[in-house]
Amino acid sequence: MKINKISIIITYFFVVIMAFSITSCADELAELNENPNAIEDLPYGLQLTEVQLDAPGGRYEMRRAALGWGIAAVQQLADVSIATSILPGDKYIDFIDYSFALFDRYYLQEAKEVVDFVTRTAEDPEAVNYNAIGRILKVMSFHKVTDLYGDIPYSEAGLGYLTNNWFPAYDRQEDIYADMLSELEAAAVQLSSSAENPGTQDVMYGGDLTKWRKLSYSMMLRLGLRLSKVDPAASESWVKKAIAGGVMTDLDDVAKVEHEIGGVTSPIGDAFDVDKFMRLSDTFVSWMEDHGDPRLDILSWVENGGPHQGLPNGLDPTTLTTEGPAGGDILDYSQVNQALVQRDSPSMFMTYAEVEFMLAEAAVRGWYNGDAETHYNNGVRAAMENWSFYGVSTPSTAEVDNYLSSNPYNATNALEMIGEQYWAATFLNPWESYSNWRRIEYPVLTPVNYPGNATGGTIPRRLKYPIVEFNVNAENVNAAISNQGPNDYTTRVWWDK
């Protein structure tokens, strides 16, 4: 993919030089200068569908960045591989081509599509709702990228394909967040029942503008809380604004894309379909066992038929034999229930459970007058019920009641309890699980210190920029490094202070 980007640049300059070296008419020169990639007449509804179906990404970045780094770094999955490096985040091994997978894929595909959609619809006064939805989708996708890398191309992103700007500047994450929050606020107000509705071509909400407005404010709540370490005053302000605007209120508000075999398939399902060696982390399984969590029976499957058993992070084939709690046979360790990672499993962007836990946190911080315990309990219930979207049986009301009575909300360690439940609720959404853990730092995780690791035995705080950026966009990527810090796994992004 890196070669393709360089080839595009070389080809572009070659064509321009050749165009001016031959005699041709003015019309031909004008035609040559038109952007062949620009979408002129594609109906907004069809383009919206494409943007939404593309939003979950593909197996490439899910397999390498989300699962390979994020989900392993927060100790939800583990593996014993070294040579094939199934999960480099399990041992903090410097497999940089896994590290830059999201960046690599995003700017070659998703960024240009969502930017083009927002740009096209902004120019048409009849496309008010399409534009508002596009602005929300743009924030939803870009915040995933900036949370992983920090400073990224944002204001000039996607312009290579649209205006031939192949060398985008990197925006500071502080500025990106300010713009994303403003975009969410504007989009929520912009949604209008009197303007054209996308209807069924909106594959997420079927044209339900109320749900889009709730998603916009719920995303504002998420991004507002991201600022809690670096700018508490701004964090409080945005959190209050989001809650006043109206966030998700039940499971029907969940933001997700459904997949189907033969169509656009689940990137996480595709990843698990290829790699059969990933296992549930012992940290995650032990936490569920310690709390008597009924989700363990939903999430865990042991191929050899034995009891649930997590795999400790940081083991290899040799140390598994000597230190593995179930011995050296990898089939004795818990895999992810195959029913949850099918190629037609849904892709989750934001759940009602997350919103309830964020409301609980806001109440604990004194930024909201709701009852923290009520929202915490609501979040636990919703997190367990959310697995129904995957076609599996969920814990009964009695089982959830028993779980809550056995693990009652405790105001003295409220943030820890909320952080742990959020961590569990975002399992299989690695982007969010990894980002929120870095912000709130619960649950408390014990890092591994595998020989030759790239972090000195500390959990990675970000992923690395692609090597190709230093070859084709060196001035801009080096400016980002000058602002943010070294292109290392231990450099913290702006909000992670």
Topology:
Elements: H1 2-21, H2 26-32, H3 44-54, H4 59-73, E1 77-78, H5 88-91, H6 96-99, H7 101-122, H8 128-149, E2 152-153, H9 159-163, E3 170-171, H10 173-190, H11 209-226, H12 232-245, E4 255-257, H13 267-274, E5 279-280, H14 282-290, H15 296-299, E6 300-301, H16 317-323, E7 335-336, E8 347-350, H17 352-364, H18 372-385, H19 397-406, H20 414-425, H21 430-440, H22 467-472, H23 474-484
Antiparallel strand pairs: 1-5, 2-3, 4-8, 6-7
Helix pairs in contact: 3-7, 4-7, 4-13, 4-21, 7-8, 8-10, 8-11, 10-11, 11-12, 17-18, 17-20, 18-20, 20-21
How large is the count of helical segments? 23
CATH topology of the largest domain: Serine Threonine Protein Phosphatase 5, Tetratricopeptide repeat
Largest sheet: spatial strand order = 1-5
Low-confidence stretches: 1-38
Q: If you average the pLDDT, what whole number results?
A: 91
Shape: globular
- What is the number of independent domains? 2
Strand content: under 5%
What percentage of residues falls in helices of 4 or more residues? 40-55%
Spatial extent as radius of gyration: 23 Å
Structure class: mainly alpha
CATH architecture assignment of the largest domain: Alpha Horseshoe
What is the total tally of β strands? 8
Organism: Snuella sedimenti
Pfam families: SusD-like_2
Protein name: SusD/RagB family nutrient-binding outer membrane lipoprotein
Keywords: Lipoprotein
